[in-house]
Amino acid sequence: MDGLRREFESCRRARDDVEQQLVQLRQQLERAEQRSFALYQQRDPEQGSLRHFLRYHRPGWEQQLGKVIAPELLERRDLAPQLAESGSDDLFGLALDLSAIALPDYAQDEASLLAAIEEADNSKRRVQSESQAAEKSLKQHNERVQQADEAQDQGRMAHKRAEQEVEFAIEARRQQQERHTKRQQERRAAHQTALARQEQAQNELREEKQQALAALNETHQSQLLELKADSQSQVDSLDAQLRQYKQQLSDANQEHQRQRAELEEAFSQELAEQGVDPAKLKDTKERLAS
Question: Whole-model pTM?
Answer without folding.
Answer: 0.33
